[in-house]
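PROTEIN DATA CARD
Card holder: Cell division protein FtsX
Chain length: 305
Origin: Streptomyces bluensis
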Amino acid sequence: MRAQFVLSEIGVGLRRNLTMTFAVIVSVGLSLALFGGSLLMSDQVNQMKGYWYDKVNVSIFLCNKSDAESDPNCAKGAVTTEQKDQIKADLDKMNVVDTVLYESQDQAYKHYKEQFGDSPLASSLTPDQMQESYRIKLKDPEKYQVIASAFNGRAGVQSVQDQKGILDNLFTLLGYLNWAARGVMFVMLIVALLLIVNTVRVSAFSRRRETGIMRLVGASGFYIQAPFIMEAAVAGLIGGTIACSFLVLGQYFVIDNGVALSEKLQLINFVGWDAVLTKLPLILAASFLMPALAAFFALRKYLKV
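Structure generated from the sequence above:
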């Protein structure tokens, strides 16, 4: 009988404050969708780091005849065979090095033509203008400075470049975007909590006569508060369901089908359904508990039961 009364009061409360309930549902849905999206963005960045950092190379570019005339690092002239052999031998001795690949001027010219053959500059280049290089894969991508300190400034070496630096800039940008999404989510969450508190207070005020009678007949504080708390929890749970729907539909239509970014951007290893599905219970739990706790503390101060 008590459970039936509580359920009936929940329905009455939701219908009586329909506009504010709708606002609570929308704000909770949007804030938790942003929350889930930020969690997925963090997973995506971490997955991309693991994928790309495993593929980055350190490149040691060697001096050619053109560099000897224009680059201060190559003031001693183009790299000699002895210098190349010594660089290769030193690389083979280093514990941080996994593999070393030599790229000749002809190979560099071929790769350049494959990538930039349509550019106006490509027609004026010749193989002897390209740089020989060693492409080094490290056991730990963080150990770039070991290679840089060992070979920068050495005779025959024009420069040492780390591809990880380029990726770091990308991941820093993605990190900023992720924090921006979390900031918007935090603002939306505050708005949702304020709406929940106001909705509960309006609902309690409109039913002050009923709650007064219940208090007079000896109803417990929890029994009086329960309908209001459950109203907020149900509204929040509907918003959480909407947030989960956004994440599921986004994964299905944007990543896998429809826009199909996973097919169009094959260089990016997108997070899969396992990452999405693990976030849904967390979002649903937050959508239920957050409004319920907000209503509980608001009622303690407002009803003083």
